[in-house]
Amino acid sequence: MREIAILGIGQTQVSENWNQSIREIAGEAVLAALADANLTTVDGLYVGNMLSGLLGRQESLGALIADWVGLHDKEAMKVEAACGSGAAALRMAIMAVSSGELECAIAVGVEKMTEMKGSETTAALATAADADYEVIHGLSFVGINALVMQRYMYEYGWKHTHFAPFSINAHANGVHNPYARLHEVISEKDYQRARMISDPINLLDASPIGDGAAAVVVVPAESVKTRFSHTTLNHRHIITIVGSAAATDTIAVHSRSDPLWLAAAEKSARQAYLQAGIGPKDIDFFELHDAFSIMSALSLEACGFAERGQGPRLGLDEKITPSGEIPIATMGGLKARGHPVGATGIYQIVEVAQQLRGEAGRTQVDGARIGMAQNIGGSGATIVTHILKASRN
Amino acid sequence: MREIAILGIGQTQVSENWNQSIREIAGEAVLAALADANLTTVDGLYVGNMLSGLLGRQESLGALIADWVGLHDKEAMKVEAACGSGAAALRMAIMAVSSGELECAIAVGVEKMTEMKGSETTAALATAADADYEVIHGLSFVGINALVMQRYMYEYGWKHTHFAPFSINAHANGVHNPYARLHEVISEKDYQRARMISDPINLLDASPIGDGAAAVVVVPAESVKTRFSHTTLNHRHIITIVGSAAATDTIAVHSRSDPLWLAAAEKSARQAYLQAGIGPKDIDFFELHDAFSIMSALSLEACGFAERGQGPRLGLDEKITPSGEIPIATMGGLKARGHPVGATGIYQIVEVAQQLRGEAGRTQVDGARIGMAQNIGGSGATIVTHILKASRN
Fold it and tell me: Quick check: B200 pLDDT over 80?
């Protein structure tokens, strides 16, 4: 793939935000990313969003947000891949500049989820699953993940408490991220005693929904020193995307030959490794899609960081903390930063960029040079993996 | 832009189709396009769709359809730009192969709209407009277009009956298209007497909704003679995309300095002309977005085929028929073929390809070599223009 540079990043705090409309939330992140990039405009805007139609009665988010932020007349559209919408929109921005169609594009992920009743939000989230073969039987989205976790514990002999480190690490890191939704350290006892949601998934296995937006500005890497040379003045490092790949799996979990294996995570990660010319050992930290703690285990396995069925071992051996072998959820992950679904994939990219710039604060991964982000739509149906790299400016 | 070839096209009849689910409808078009291209697989699938979340409680259409048609593990996602979603998905497929990220991609537009009550469909279609500043006042989507038409008639002195040729031509052409929803010749008297919907838009000014899907397979043009040389055996002509551009305008019509001018149509058409190295005079026929007859007039003006305010003149002078100077809606247009919103943009491309291959039947435009398609999301908020060209195989 053609190498792509990230010139600017922006994000809003994930929160329960009843004071701003979806265009205002998205606009805040877009304008922050443009300011960070020393730019006032771009050639195109790609919006990652899943639920604005269902929860906000508003489609056409591309034109809506472009209009609001002053990107008058620019190309703009929305990309949807359930909870993987954010990284899918980034894929589109990458392809737009990589093809030469545009010189400079912005990808913004945005979601506004907290104004509706919980039952309506739960029903809306279930549109990520197969309406005709899963949801029709009364399965909610957390219910599907609970079945997967139940089976995983049965097959590999893990107890619920063995998943505690995923949640504890995410919360410990999120405390230091001003953009995170939750700022609360939790203990193993808290984890064990949390309210049950869908057995075995309890409240501390599940990421909270939220309102928020994150944005990144991308250009072809070779134009950074020419047309866009003014954009990197503020930064010691230039961040480039050296791997970008998307893959799919069956939408219904029951259709998979192995429901405990994220085939699309494996495929997209392999392809991204190949593009970057590296392997899992070269990844300094991994912003994975910990929507539920079981997904952390499955992602670590599919991407080559743990043997099959051994994901929880990495947590128990303290390898996932910021000073561990493969730090994950370094800014809080979905679990503590929060999971405004269509925005999450871009939050992950922003956080990887913060780490690679050395601007991650108290949870900075020492010497971080190569980071990976993986965004999952549905229960593994669409998975998008990106590998980012820092170079001295 | 890099030149792109269309290897295969497929479509289903636009109809009230209660017997097939959305994945089955989309699958039929995808498999038809693959068969037409002599291919069994592609590297990626981009879905144009607006309303599957609201009307079918199903998001994640990319993975859903890829899974259904046997594109196991391929990249897949949905693209949304209201009624412009189809051409927006094609933009993404073009950028995917143009960037070299994929060698071969399919864009499929699909919509399933007829199972809901009319009031629910009307409410869902209104999500194309500005929820906070237009819809909140009770405006429906047809209501917005009626205000524009009213103003246009007032400003330029046209009577309602002067718009009749747009509808009469579309219906006359649609009769011969087996994939069209309506097969019914109409007279000027029928047009004048049709039931009023939202003054001055009557039933014969408005396109019917419908269920349907259309698909196209695209590759970089230079790979047609090499890797994909087997795909064109059945065809006398190779169809290439020589212009592709998207632009936006304010989402709310009242925010525009001139609500009677489609600025995004003008911008995207100009850009497509520039890419193709041609002007309006070189266009042999124009598949425009006649969701309402007023939109035909505005599109013809913005794209350089008529003076400002003079769009209806082309109809009255019989220039828009298949044997006229600038044939439009040659296969029935949105008016008679039907308007399954997220699919329409791909139907237009399929129809242009049929004309350029000389396979348009009774409404074949003699000697058609260059055709243009223009797909509009919202009341002109997102507009995508493509120019296609035929070359001897």
Answer: yes
Q: Report pLDDT for B229.
A: 87
Using an 8 Å CB-CB cutoff, list chain B residues near A92: 77, 79, 92, 95
Q: Considering only residues 26 to 55 of chain A, which have any Cβ-Cβ distance to chain B shorter than 8 Å?
A: 44, 50-51, 53-54
Q: What integer is the mean pLDDT of B11-40?
A: 97
- Chain A residue numbers with beta carbons less than 8 Å from the beta carbon of B64 are 130, 251, 381
The per-residue pLDDT for A236 is 83
Residue A104 Cα, gap to closest chain B Cα (Å): 14
Among the partner residues A73, A124, A129, nearest to B249 by beta-carbon distance: A73
Residues B286-333: pLDDT tens digits? 999 999 999 999 999 999 999 999 999 999 999 999 999 999 999 999
Q: Which position has the token pair 């087996």?
A: B178
| CB proximity B242 to A under 8 Å | no
Res. B235 pLDDT band, cuts 50 70 90: confident
pLDDT of residue A392: 85
Quick check: A59 and B127 CB within 8 A?
A: yes
Q: Report the percentage of chain A scoring pLDDT > 70.
A: 100
Q: How far apart are CA A385 and CA A183, in angstroms?
A: 27
Decide if A121 touches B, using CB distance below 8 A: no
Q: Which residues of A touch B79 (CB under 8 A)?
A: 77-80, 92
Q: Is B339 a catalytic residue?
A: yes
Determine the Cα–Cα distance for residues A275 and A243; give it in Å rounded to an integer: 5
| Residue of B162, B171, B235, B339 marked catalytic | B339
Cβ–Cβ contact B129 with A under 8 A: yes
SS (H, E, C) chain A: CCCEEEEEEEECCCECCCCCCHHHHHHHHHHHHHHHCCCCCCCEEEEECCCHHHHHCCCCHHHHHHHHHCCCCCEEEEEEECECHHHHHHHHHHHHHHCCCCCCEEEEEEECCCCCCHHHHHHHHHHHCCCCCCHHHCCCHHHHHHHHHHHHHHHHCCCHHHHHHHHHHHHHHHCCCCCCCCCCCCCHHHHHHCCEEECCEECCCECCCCEEEEEEEEEEHHHCCCCCHHHHCCCCEEEEEEEEEEEECCCCHHHCCCCCCCHHHHHHHHHHHHHHCCCHHHCCEEECCCCEHHHHHHHHHHCCCCCCCCHHHHHHCCCCCCCCCCCECCCCHHHHHCCCHHHHHHHHHHHHHHHHCCCCHHHCCCCCCEEEEEEEECCCCEEEEEEEEEEEC
How many beta-carbon pairs below 8 A join chains A and B? 233
Cβ contact A248–B63 (<8 Å): yes
Q: Which two tokens stand for residue A260?
A: 């405990």
- Does ipTM come in above 0.90? yes
Q: pLDDT class for B74, splitting at 50, 70, 90?
A: very high
The yes-or-no verdict on residue A233 having pLDDT over 80 is no
Taking an 8 Å cut-off on Cβ atoms, the answer to whether A2 and B99 are in contact is: yes
